[in-house]
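Quick one: Probable GTPase activating protein from Cyanidioschyzon merolae, structure tokens please.
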Amino acid sequence: MDSRALNTVWWSIRSLSGAPGDCLGELVPQFSEWEAQQGGITADSAPHNTTATSADAAPTTHCSRVGTAVQALCQGPLLAENKREASTDAGLKRGSAALVTKPATAPAVALETEDAEGVGSKASTTLWTQLDAIRQAWRRGDAAELSRISAVDRGLLEQLAWSGVPGAQRALAWKVLLDYCPPQPSRLLRSVSRKRDQYWQAVAELGLVTDPRLGNRLSSEDWARKRQIDLDVPRTAPEFPLFHTGAVQQAMTRILHLWSVRHPAAGYVQGLNDILVPLLYVFYADQAPEFSQLDRTTLPEDAEPLLREVEADTYWCLSTLLEALQDQYVFGQPGIQRRVALLERIMQRIDASLCAHLAKEQVTFMQFAFRWMNCLLVREFPLPITLRLWDAYLSERGTFAAFHVYVCAALLERFSLDLVRLTFPDLVLFLQNLPTRSWTEQDLSTLLSRAYMFKAIFEDARRL
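--- reply ---
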């Protein structure tokens, strides 16, 4: 189990009082009873030590089965690393409701401690410095310098990205995590140049220009897709004038249309335009920081060649991102159906009273969670928080779609006390306009910590 997971789960459990088995029971109502039915731990089968942990022994539990991450935590090295915290924890009252309602967050620099499985602050600094050196050499087109830089440690990048990527390195980090840029800097110029050329060749072949001959190149189905894209793109990110400049909207239109044509089983589905926003903004802000202000209403001619490169990069990264989500965009959108159903089952275990209240008010999960799944919460958070969320998503490689469900569960749990007080019309309005506009990265870190905890508990459950 990597240090990212261990640190996240440690801080989630440490936010609660009591032994790990008791903590899980407090965190998830009815958890112990449910686990008993599954053959897992119960309060009786997981006796705990009520005395302070000795200096030379890590606390253990007699867990027969719990989520993989939690079991590793109970038996793993991280508790030994944090045994210095035991004397402080011993003074906390076990079972305190106050401690359960506001969990501590996985610290933003959790992986920068000297003990976290060898991933110290030196490794973190070295990686970000390496990415910055690659970025600068790439910008200069210096092949000789790139050949002298060592390959990026993909595993280390994933671990560090979980805690957030510095803004200056985010674009390159995302491109590496999305397999657009090779980890070997010596291959970077040739690989990216080839992919950019392929993109623009495909755009030209499809005829995505204002041209009377366009009608001869597009089928009736393609025209229907293009009309829907032409309707949706102007509605994208209405609060940011940058996304309403002509050049940016044309770039978005070409990206979405080419993707829909190359993926006929999925085609274009409303919501893909929202998923495009974080990628396009991060890459454009990196290429043209002086022209990337979100309130900018026009782009100078100097920015157009840079936007051309950004457009190609965004297309390829979007394609990789959507590979894990294609079942959400095929006919009937079965992927969304499954993930919303999973979210409802998880919430039945986490907060049965909230589920009962939603049912009483006749609010179905599909009414609000469809958009959460379809747009990956892009509409629910301010853009800087969305970028931080996507750092964590991309560090999950091909499993971020599953982790996203647990993030949605943590989001519902966060506002549970507000939701149970509302009736139908106010419930719907609240869920469609969550009060997250003033959120900070600390708020998001708390949410991610809870989400990882839920994943640790439920991911390996045989019956949910």
